Amino acid sequence: MPRGRPRKNPDAAPAPKKTTKASKTKTASATLGFEQQMFLAADKLRKNLEPSDYKHVALGLIFLRYISTAFEARHAELMLDDPAAAEDPDEYLAENIFWVPETARWSHLRDNARSPGIGKMIDDAMLAIEKANPDQLKGVLPKDYGRPALDSVMLGELIDLISDIGMGDTDDKARDVLGRVYEYFLGGFAGAEGKRGGEFYTPSSVVRTLVSMLEPYKGRVYDPCCGSGGMFVQSERFVETHGGKLGDIAIYGQESNHTTWRLARMNLAVRGIGADIRWNNEGSFLRDELKDLRFDYILANPPFNVSDWWNASLEEDPRWQYGKPPAGNANYAWLQHILWHLVPDGTAGVVLANGSMSSNQNSEGEIRRRMVEADVVDCMVALPGQLFYSTQIPACLWFLTRTKKQKGWRDRRGEILFIDARKLGKLVDRTRRELTDEDVARIADTYHAWRGEKNAGTYEDSPGFCKSATLDEVKQHGFVLTPGRYVGAEEAEEDRVPFTERFAALEKTLKEQFAQGEELNAKITASLKLIVQKESV
Asked: What region holds the DNA methylase adenine-specific domain (predicted)?
């Protein structure tokens, strides 16, 4: 198993100076506490409002605070250098900053937070911002703050709360803080909504696992069912963390739920991430908005086991290279759609239900066989349970590629890596588990070593955790791709203890158990005699 080693893009700028493990932990804990306190305080204000409704109220205001903060910081700079330029929208567009009209600025809303008409003021602000930035924000922002169901006092208190978010000393720090608050709120609302919330949000630890394994340094990144955009945020964060810069990757996506599409657009805007995210209510199968594009990296968490996806127009679709998917389950439609969109040396990571690894219903087993024989399955990861808000169905990760003889890596043709991560993760509450940073690193490092990446260490099979299997071995297992079938049992700890020591310990335990047994037999015999005596009387 490879241990910690430096990883960076050889073509990128030097990575930022590393902090110690202790300082990282301290910083992360402090940030989490702040974000959690903010969410709990905001959630308390919603009272009887449903989380699915209140989500847009809170997130919309955080977004408004973000773009206003960025605008006002730039406005102050321009006022010092050239006051006339401060009123030119192009000066802001050049810096990837939205133009915010005066009555839509956060300072104006904050000053009027206790006004009975604050709801209408917010709606007017959202309309004004969309009108001033039609290319990026048309139809994106929520504009129903003035409805009677929203208490103006609650809105005022929420504005005050969001105003208290510390911005730091720089605009970049402000963006980072608000972006993290927005991201934490997305996860918080997904948890509060349960199954419905999970449809727009993939747990952060699952996304980090995908991103850490794929390492999207440069090129096009695509998600055909992008939800609220978490895959893209983590991809950009990965690039920046490893010495790259914003813009090293180009982001593309599609989403069929309009409300979720709006969340994704705001989520990316809060992080300052430019992206081409398309929406239509037909979805990626029936109306592939990006059908002529191919991508270097694809990350996706499609809805599990969708049964109502089929349409007769898909009968002869060229995407079904390995067989027509069954009408009752879209799992293998997603896999083939994603393979279709990969460049020749691209890689993809896909979250699917565990059943996809072994199902033989309808044509699924045959499609899986053809995919294995075509050597497009690179790695399979079995995930621990309880990771997702939306379902208790066990999940897995599929990693796909069109070629296993990629430049700079070893020739992996005829092999598949199996990782069984079901024992990893820690419970964060009674119902949900998360993969820790160490878990994510262990999974990703194993994959990188197996691929033969530079400085990735030497790969070795680890009983109970990982196994590099040949296609012949997979064939012997009937083309079932469940990692547990290949990794075997974990080596028992006792096997490392000398036999004489283990025998002595067992002998001692056995003697103690014999003594306990004799003592228990004596007590039972005495009790039976007492019962007989009482019955005789």
From this structure: 174-495
First to last CA, the chain: 74
Mean pLDDT of 173-185: 74
How far apart CA 68 and CA 98 sit, in angstroms, is 8
> Does residue 360 lie in a domain region?
yes
Q: Is 438 exposed, middle or buried (0-12, 13-18, 19+ CB in 10 A)?
A: exposed
- Final residue before a domain boundary, out of 485, 500, 517: 485
| 23-79 pLDDT per residue, tens | 333 333 334 456 777 888 888 888 878 888 888 899 999 999 989 988 988 999 999
**CA–CA distance, 72 with 78 (Å, rounded to integer):** 10
- Do 186 and 206 share a structural domain? no
Going by the DSSP 8-state scheme, the letter that residue 489 receives in this structure is: P
Report the SS3 class of residue 397: strand
SS3 of 429-477: the string is: CCCCEECCHHHHHHHHHHHHHHHCCCCCCCCCCECCCEEEEEHHHHHHC
Sign of CA dihedral 121, 127, 133, 136: positive
Output DSSP code: residue 18. Answer: P
Domain count, the chain: 2
Q: How far, in Å, CA of 123 to CA of 395, rounded?
A: 41
Q: Beta strand 377-382 with 466-470: parallel, antiparallel or unpaired?
A: unpaired
Q: Cα–Cα distance between 399 and 526 in angstroms, integer?
A: 66
344: tokens are 């020749």
Rounded Cα distance, 296 and 279, in Å: 21
Is residue 266 in some structural domain? yes
CA distances for 493 relative to 295, 423, 504, angstroms = 45, 16, 16
In a domain, 518, yes or no: no
Residues 213 and 172 in one domain: no
- Note whether 245 and 360 are same-domain residues: yes
Q: Give 450-505 pLDDT, tens digit per residue.
A: 999 999 999 999 999 999 999 999 999 999 999 999 998 776 544 445 666 667 76
Q: What residues make up the domain containing 230?
A: 198-485
pLDDT digits (tens, 9 = 90+) for 354-409: 999 999 989 999 999 999 999 999 999 999 998 887 677 889 999 999 999 988 89
pLDDT at residue 199, rounded to an integer: 60
Name the CA radius of gyration of the chain, rounded.
28
Report the distance separating Cα 119 and Cα 145, nearest Å.
5
Contact assessment for residue 68 and residue 132, using Cβ atoms and an 8 Å cutoff? no
Return the amino acid letter for 264.
Answer: A
CA distance 436 to 124: 43
Is there a single domain that holds both residue 278 and residue 424? yes
